[in-house]
Amino acid sequence: MGRNYRQGRLGEEIKKSISGYLLNGIKDPRLSTRIITISAVEVSNDGSYATVFFTPLTLSGEDSNEVSKEVLSAFNNAKGLFRTKISHDIKLRHAPELNFKLDSSMEYGRHIDEIIDEINKPER
């Protein structure tokens, strides 16, 4: 139990650090001008890797795939900055290697809702 608890705590601290940096500090306009939600952070057993799941908000006229690619590219370019910020905020000797992934759980949930609505639709 102690090991999973530490991973969860570390994940939440990393999430808080990245979110704070996105709000107050990141200079890249691909990240600073967008609303980005950090939905979860999964930390490996030994704490050397962390997978950061994010969801960018897209406006009505934008292509969500293009926005996601642009934001993912910006995150990958700023990995070093985020690691430095995390190690300072959490006071870690070795900040975990960050992997950024698009969180598609919202889209998956919408898809399931559509399927359920289609099944429950009265036949005409």
Give structural notes.
Helix content is 55%, strand content 18%. The protein has helices at residues 2-23, 29-32, 64-77, 79-90, 105-120; strands at residues 36-43, 49-56, 97-102.
What is the structure about, briefly put?
The protein is an alpha+beta fold and 124 residues long.
Strand and helix order? HHEEHHEH
Q: Numbering strands along the chain, what is their spatial order in the largest sheet?
A: 1-2-3
- The helix/strand class is alpha+beta
- What oligomeric state best describes the polypeptide chains here? single chain
Low-pLDDT stretches are none
Q: Report the radius of gyration as a whole number of Å.
A: 17 Å
Q: Can you tell me the overall shape?
A: globular
Biggest beta-sheet profile? 3 strands, mixed
Percentage of helical residues? 40-55%
Distance between the termini: 54 Å
Question: Approximately how much beta-strand content do the residues carry?
Answer: 15-25%
Roughly what is the average pLDDT, rounded to an integer? 87
Number of helices: 5
DSSP, total strands:
3
